[in-house]
């Protein structure tokens, strides 16, 4: 799905959302320059794989957090983790670097990607901001709606307490 198809899909599913169009951004530092309506609800997404390329994970946390992959590995008993390649990102989720998003799981035909989402997004107001498979916009929707969409597609989703696994702010 491209950006337009994501918007259509959300409409078909009856999911309320808001869109903020902006210049293309490729990292969180560039996003800081964008005037977002809900910056506290913006997501940072890390696409990682294990050292054998058997398991792929999308770790989604609040934008101001840093992820300690060693602590994550220990908490979820995974093999050693590395960032997935741009080729993996393209072939599995149909995305380019800078456009990583949980909505990319909707392009994961084999449901290889396990989404881990920071449960802090589920607290009031329950909103999350993610790219619509394109880094020129941010879609704001309810976190539970996002979880339901990805789960319904067939990907595994785990909400986790980021602070409990020693993520560093």
Distance between the termini: 33 Å
> What is the count of β-strands?
8
CATH class: Alpha Beta
Q: What is the general shape?
A: globular
The CATH architecture is Alpha-Beta Complex
Quaternary: single chain
Q: Indicate the low-confidence ranges by residue numbers.
A: none
Strand order of the largest sheet: 4-2-3-5-8
Rg result = 15 Å
Bin the helical content.
10-25%
Features:
169 residues; alpha/beta; YbaK protein; 5-stranded mixed β-sheet; 3-stranded antiparallel β-sheet; 24% helix; globular
What features would you describe in this structure?
This protein has 169 residues and is an alpha/beta fold. It has one domain (3-26, 38-165): YbaK protein. It has helices at 3-12, 28-31, 69-76, 86-93, 143-153, and strands at 17-21, 43-50, 56-62, 81-83, 113-118, 127-130, 137-142, 157-160. The longest helix is centred in the last third of the chain and has 11 residues, at 143-153. The mean pLDDT is 93.
């Amino acid at each position: 799905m491209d950006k337009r198809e994501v918007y259509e899909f959300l409409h078909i599913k009856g999911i309320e959302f808001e869109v903020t169009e902006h210049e293309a951004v490729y990292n969180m530092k560039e996003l800081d320059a964008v005037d977002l309506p809900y910056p506290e609800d913006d997501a940072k997404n890390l696409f990682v794989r294990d050292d054998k390329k058997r398991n792929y994970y999308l770790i989604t946390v609040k934008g101001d957090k840093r992820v300690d992959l060693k602590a994550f590995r220990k908490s979820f008993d995974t093999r050693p983790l590395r960032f997935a390649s741009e080729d993996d990102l393209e072939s599995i989720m149909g995305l380019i670097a800078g456009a990583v998003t949980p909505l990319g799981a909707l392009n994961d035909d084999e449901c290889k990607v396990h989404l881990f989402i920071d449960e802090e997004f589920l607290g009031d107001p329950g909103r999350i901001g993610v790219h619509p498979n394109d880094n020129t916009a941010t879609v704001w929707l309810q976190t539970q709606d996002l979880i339901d969409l990805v789960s319904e597609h067939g990907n595994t989703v785990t909400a986790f307490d980021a602070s409990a696994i020693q993520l560093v702010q």
